[in-house]
């Protein structure tokens, strides 16, 4: 299980953006918990195929790293598209989805873009990302700022680090949260040689010059990537 981040984190992490969903196909922003958990917003057929490929790729990487399946944990957002993705990956790995190895975490949910953008066109995303670049502490009206999302992702990371030891953790979430998670953890790693622990290193990274740059870690639907 040794890797370049072994001294920094107690587990190894991969991130997976959900497969292409019905909202993706329809060009809709579905970001509220109320809408996000609805079954009509789960994966489209293409997204199921993407999730299967991601599961096969993850399995191959586990085998290459000589990581046994009993060390695997799948932590996923409660939205229907991420739950569906996590279920497909668990099937590929032959892990029972209702076992302790698979855990729903509300802190991994989609970024809420606010009522102005909910169920509106995907074409609106650049407006929000422009706002993030200008001021990542300011969210769209009624929605979450980049820093708001990072705050709960920090809680998710600390929770996983506390609960699991020397595990291979697949984090199944959404585009904005996963690019923000990668961004903040790459920055936190730069602080990790100093005093303190993970909470302090993440806190040091919650500055505008870091938070505003999350788009460089963007993922395609169904894309799997090591966190670090």
Automatic annotation (TrEMBL):
InterPro entries given in the database record: His_Pase_superF_clade-1, His_PPase_superfam
Organism classification: Eukaryota, Viridiplantae, Streptophyta, Embryophyta, Tracheophyta
One Pfam family it belongs to: His_Phos_1
Protein name: Phosphoglycerate mutase family protein
């Amino acid at each position: 299980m040794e890797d370049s981040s072994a001294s920094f984190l107690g587990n190894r992490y991969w991130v997976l953006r959900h497969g292409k969903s019905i909202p993706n196909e329809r060009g809709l922003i579905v970001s509220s918990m109320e809408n996000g958990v609805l079954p009509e917003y789960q994966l489209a057929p293409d997204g199921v195929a993407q999730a299967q490929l991601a599961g096969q790729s993850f399995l191959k990487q586990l085998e290459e790293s000589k990581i046994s399946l009993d060390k695997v944990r799948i932590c996923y957002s409660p939205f229907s598209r991420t739950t569906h993705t996590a279920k497909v990956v668990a099937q590929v790995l032959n892990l029972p989805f209702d076992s302790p190895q698979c855990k729903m975490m509300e802190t991994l949910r989609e970024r809420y873009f606010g009522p102005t953008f909910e169920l509106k066109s995907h074409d609106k995303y650049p407006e929000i990302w422009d706002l993030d670049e200008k001021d990542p502490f300011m969210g769209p009206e009624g929605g979450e700022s980049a820093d708001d999302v990072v705050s709960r992702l920090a809680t998710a990371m600390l929770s996983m680090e506390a609960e699991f030891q020397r595990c291979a953790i697949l984090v199944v979430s959404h585009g904005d949260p996963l690019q923000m998670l990668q961004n903040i953890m790459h920055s936190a790693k730069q602080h990790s040689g100093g005093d303190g622990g993970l909470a302090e290193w993440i806190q040091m990274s919650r500055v505008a010059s870091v938070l505003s740059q999350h788009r460089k870690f963007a993922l395609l639907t169904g894309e799997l990537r090591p966190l670090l």
